[in-house]
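Late entry, written up from scratch paper. The run itself happened at the end of the previous shift, but nothing got recorded in the book at the time, so transcribing now.
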Amino acid sequence: MTNRLILASEKNAAKLLDMRPAEFRELVEAGALPRGHEIAPGYVRWRVAELDAIVTGQAMAEAFQW
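Output as recorded:
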């Protein structure tokens, strides 16, 4: 099986964490959530696997650095 990289816009990343985009943005700026990755000029996306690791607690176990 190949590892697929699934990306989400800020709006969809916020939805995945059940929060408003403004709340999501504040937590990213505070360093509590990972920053997005610029995939092309002006296009920032978040890795769904990183967001999933936060929700499941795996991020704490693996000491994610963002």
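Strands lie at 7-8, 37-40, 43-47.
(Scratch paper discarded after transcription.)
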